[in-house]
Amino acid sequence: MAPSLTQVSSNKHFEGTLTKYKFKSSALGDLDAAFNVFLPANAASAKVPVLVYLAGLTCTEDNGAQKGSFMKDAAQEGIALVFPDTSPRGANVPGEDDSWDFGSGAGFYVNATHPAWSKHYNMRAHVAQELPAVIEAAGIPIDWSRQSIFGHSMGGHGALTLYLQSFLPPAAGPGPNERQYRSASAFSPICNPTIAPWGTKAFSGYLEGGIEEARNVYDATQLISRVKENVHILIDYGTADNFLFQLNPDNFLKAAREAGHDDVQVRVRSQEGYDHSYYFISTFASDHIHFHANFLKA
Amino acid sequence: MAPSLTQVSSNKHFEGTLTKYKFKSSALGDLDAAFNVFLPANAASAKVPVLVYLAGLTCTEDNGAQKGSFMKDAAQEGIALVFPDTSPRGANVPGEDDSWDFGSGAGFYVNATHPAWSKHYNMRAHVAQELPAVIEAAGIPIDWSRQSIFGHSMGGHGALTLYLQSFLPPAAGPGPNERQYRSASAFSPICNPTIAPWGTKAFSGYLEGGIEEARNVYDATQLISRVKENVHILIDYGTADNFLFQLNPDNFLKAAREAGHDDVQVRVRSQEGYDHSYYFISTFASDHIHFHANFLKA
């Protein structure tokens, strides 16, 4: 039986409604998990397609909803948005709150295999399987057969890897179904985390097999090499991003081209002078919503 | 000599730049004051008009910049935005941090006359006189002869009263010059603060003469009755606003009509189902920017 949702708050927004819910998450070891969902006005008459936004390190389900500037265009396009949290909360694993880039707020969209973390730190299963099932069971009018995914930084890594995993199942326990997502996009994503400080720290902690275990499942640059089907990917990053050394978009682009994915399938845009902040994200938010609308409404 | 500005941060945003500065504010008793300024791309070639945004209770110079969704349209219109803080910080007046609706984060855009507060709590002088002078002296390319003002809640009160005061100088010490602002708008403003709990608490604390002293200077509903010139005012409020009892937009509208200001001069819009949050503000942000652009670019 699906867990029941408790409504935390609700705000009218661009003629639609942004609602925050919480529920007891089995994917996260029976901890309370919160998420925001934006339903455009047209959801009153029919199920709408959905775009899932994965936030970055230190964020919650609120950052994208409050600062992303996604809803104006989503409302116009008639697309729902789902904003998950970025990690379990209150798991009380030793070391969970010792650093801002590991543990709380830093789930990295993996299913943990290290025994210390594997009960709770399963954001991959939470995002790809649990949230769609729970939201569907609650009768919220979303058509999950029309689903795409995007994100920022760690969440950009999450969006790219969940999308690419959906071409290459099964792997690493509960995750996306085959072709679960129609398209993926990312702002400043961690494209090659097995060689980036944030990624290697996360994988070394959450995965029993460490970086080696991550290579085939959680590294977008590795994954794109193995996907032969047509893909729909848009990436934006800023040239003034202080974290560019963590992101490696060039590695991803090179691997994509070598695997035969052209500029229509994988578009990587370098944005002059922009940084890693939500001021960058909101500048290009409209482009990303309309990119996904092409596929969600096809 | 004008105080020098220290740059705290800078982010490229919609092809323009959002920069946070701080400086030693004499209006606020030599405390450090921070503000954000957004310059659209066209400010590189000529001075641009400016819209000042006053935030509400508990906010800082960041809330409007991060959550208001003002910059996309301001960039398109070629208008600068200035985001002041909502009070002095660190004045160490006894009681300053005892409640969320008085003291820190709650300056109410007055010049305090009570001796305990009058050294520091002069947000009226800070916004209307000091910030334009300091920004001008720093060579930031803003044309202050083309200036309008808007705000939210307490900041809506600030925008309306500073605008209306500019038709009725002199009063209450350093404040707006004659016709300093071309237009004013507000989201969920405290329209009649001398009869609202937030307003009476603030005035009783900051002003030696209390509510009586506030009536002729700091109450928009009182002020609009005395202004005979043509005005340009837009107000939006939500019918689901839990703080509607603090706002009294109907009183303001009635006083405006009785003073002969028609629907072109004073437009008050009731927005069905919206609340007091930035989700409401951002929904109508675009309307407000374009409203002011009519006058700033005339």
From TrEMBL, chains A, B:
GO terms for biological process: formaldehyde catabolic process. One of its GO terms (cellular component) is cytosol. Gene3D superfamilies: alpha/beta hydrolase. It is found in: Cytoplasm. Keywords: Cytoplasm, Hydrolase, Serine esterase. Signal peptide: none annotated. The active site is at residues 153, 241, 276. Its EC number is 3.1.2.12. GO terms for molecular function: carboxylic ester hydrolase activity; S-formylglutathione hydrolase activity. Its main location: cytoplasm. It catalyses: S-formylglutathione + H2O = formate + glutathione + H(+). The keyword Thylakoid does not apply. PANTHER family: S-FORMYLGLUTATHIONE HYDROLASE (PTHR10061:SF0). Serine hydrolase involved in the detoxification of formaldehyde. NCBIfam families: fghA_ester_D. Belongs to the esterase D family. This is S-formylglutathione hydrolase. It comes from Coniophora puteana (strain RWD-64-598) (Brown rot fungus).
